[in-house]
Amino acid sequence: MELETALALGRNAFWMALITSAPVLLIGLVVGLMISLFQAVTQLQEQTLTFVPKIAAMVVAAAIFIPWVAEQMVSYTKEMLGGMPW
Predict the structure, then answer these.
(1) In this predicted model, what pLDDT tens digit does every residue of 10-68 receive, in sequence order?
(2) 22, 28, 36, 43: which one has the fewest Cβ atoms less than 10 Å from its Cβ?
(3) Which residue, among 48, 54, 51, has the nearest Cα to 27 in the 3D structure?
(4) Which long-range contacts (C-beta less than 8 Å, at least 24 apart) are formed by 54-63?
(5) pTM for the model
(6) Percent of the chain residues past pLDDT 70, beyond the cut
(7) What is the 3-state secondary structure (H, E, C) of 9-22?
């Protein structure tokens, strides 16, 4: 395997991981910012208030985006296995 091929495979794998995890992470980020803003406005500094809604939102987002993530990963796998010299 040539260096360019190995780098391309690594780059593609990195981008696939980034793209498939982005929706859930972005929803967690938005919910976390909203909760932080709420805490700053109300001066309520409860530690569990930050984790429970963020985790719940990320679980719901993961459940919603599972079909899309699976489709992306199957497409990526077909692309990777299709280029193999077997």
Answers:
(1) 999 999 999 999 999 999 999 999 999 998 898 888 877 888 999 999 999 999 999 99
(2) 43
(3) 54
(4) 54/28, 57/27, 57/28, 57/31, 58/24, 58/27, 58/28, 58/31, 61/23, 61/24, 61/27, 61/28, 62/24
(5) 0.78
(6) 95
(7) HHHHHHHHHHHHHH
Question: Measured between alpha carbons, how far is 12 from 79 in angstroms, rounded to an integer?
Answer: 11
Residue tagged 């803003």 (tokens): 37
Residue 85 pLDDT: 60
Cβ-proximal residues to 57 (8 Å cutoff; 6+ apart), any chain: 27, 28, 31
Residue numbers of the domain that contains 75: 3-82
